[in-house]
Each structure stands twice: as C-alpha cells, then as structure tokens.
Design goal:
This protein is mainly α. Helix content is 78%, strand content 0%. It starts with a helix and ends with a helix. The relative contact order is 0.14.
Length: 228
C-alpha cells in the first residue's frame, strides 16, 4: 500500500469534507440555533469534497473553525474537534507552503500527530491502575452516559473479559508506532484502529471519532512510504 503526496492530500480533503458534513448536520435542526455557523460549513464541506476552489474553501473553513472556538469557548466536542482543527490546519499549510519541502513537513506533522494520538492514549491508560485492572472498562459499560444498549451494559459483569480487552487496547496503542516498519504492518494496524473506532461509534455513539480519525489515515500511508 503506497500513496503519492498529491493523492494523500486530496484523499484527506475528501474524507475531512465528509467528516465535516456529518458534524455540521448534527446542528442543522430546529432545536439548535447555530445555522449561521454550520450551514456555511456544510456547504463549504460539499465544495471541499467536490474539489471546487479547494484552497479558498480550506482557508474559509479555518476561519469558521476559529470562530467556533470563540463561540463555544474551546473545542466543545473534545478530541474529535481537536483532531478536526489539526487536520484542517495541516491541509491549509500544505496549500500555503511555498515549496514542496514545507508542504511535506505539514503532511508529515499530521502523520506524526496521528501516531502520537494512539501512543499517548495507550500510555495514559497503562499508567492508570484502573485500566490495568480492567475496572475502567467495566465502568465504561456500567455507567457510560452514551447510548449503550442494556445487553452491552451487562458486559460489566465479565471483569476478566474486560481486563483482557483493556490490555489488548493498551498494548496495541503503545505498539502502534512500530506499524510504520512496513506497508503491510501499517495496513493491518489501520484496519484494526478503524474497526476499533467503528465499534466505539456503534456501541457508544462516538461517530465523530470514526470519521475524523479516518481522515488522517492518508497522511500516515504517504508518510510510511516516504520514510521507508
């Protein structure tokens, strides 16, 4: 699996556009009063997917993102909003950069941040005694505020199973940087992480994480081929 720089940039823009469409649709309902932010964001995201005036669209989306930070006093949806702003910033820099060298720096930075997102997540978990014992994952199923079905909540009654699952998640996240060794190992790792995000979207309603994290995958595919 390999990808050229231009292919990685364009695929990132398309996937990010789909992620932004999904995020914007959440606010285009009568119970929300943010049409003035999210309707233009929705339209611009469609333009980004189609490739219409890509540079101008990216810069405008970045300005809207800055306004969102002021309007909601920070990334109101946590990690998914931070990743959204990171990818958008890197794409803007990839278009603004005066030379191919600095364009690759912007894309490489995004790839490294993706690697760190998994590694740091694993590190934070493994230094936590409740994650090492499986208690944290039990609590996720038992007390989660997310729309978990009753059958899934019953999993908290299987502490041994959840302890094994906790260790699998922690070790995989910590070992994720080693997936860059070859395109084969990276392909397997990205399939696993995509499946993990998809499961979280199905079980806990964390659909934002699935789409926006997938948007960063082209950068790491390109990066792996670039350095090895």
């Amino acid at each position: 699996m390999s990808m050229s720089f231009d292919e990685a940039v364009r695929l990132t823009e398309i996937l990010m556009g789909f992620a932004f469409v999904q995020q914007s649709l959440e606010h285009l309902s009568p119970k929300h009063n943010e049409y003035f932010i999210f309707l233009p964001r929705f339209i611009l995201s469609i333009c980004l997917i189609t490739g219409f005036q890509t540079s101008i669209v990216l810069y405008t989306l970045f300005l809207i993102a800055l306004f969102q930070l002021k309007r909601f006093q920070g990334p109101y949806n946590g990690g998914s909003d931070r990743m959204s702003l990171l990818i958008l910033s890197c794409m803007c820099l990839a278009h603004l950069a005066p030379t191919p060298y600095w364009q690759e720096i912007a894309m490489g930075y995004l790839a490294l941040q993706l690697v760190l997102s998994y590694f740091i997540s694993g590190w934070v978990k493994i230094v936590n005694p409740e994650w090492r014992s499986g208690r944290a994952l039990c609590d996720v199923f038992q007390f989660s505020a997310y729309p978990v079905s009753e059958s899934l909540r019953a999993w908290h009654q299987s502490p041994k199973l959840l302890s094994i699952a906790s260790w699998w998640v922690m070790l995989f996240e910590l070992l994720f940087p080693f997936s860059l060794i070859s395109s084969y190992t990276l392909t397997i790792a990205l399939i696993i992480t995509a499946s993990f995000h998809f499961a979280n979207a199905c079980f806990f309603g964390l659909n934002r994480f699935f789409w926006i994290w997938l948007s960063a995958y082209p950068s790491i595919i390109w990066f792996q081929g670039r350095i090895f």
